[in-house]
UniProtKB/TrEMBL annotation:
Organism expressing this protein natively: Ulva partita
Protein name: Proliferation-associated protein 1
Gene name of the encoded protein: 06623f
Length: 42
């Protein structure tokens, strides 16, 4: 019982971490493109 709960918890953490990392990469790319646009203006 305890092992199954632990494995489910680990799976959820892995899933959440991958989603979080993907969002972070997306945010970084959008921020980077915005910075490049600002630099091109000035």
């Amino acid at each position: 019982m305890a092992t199954s709960v632990c494995s489910i918890g680990l799976l959820l953490i892995k899933k959440w971490m991958t989603i979080f990392l993907k969002k972070m990469k997306f945010m970084q790319s959008t921020l980077w493109s915005a910075l490049v646009k600002v630099k091109q203006k000035f």
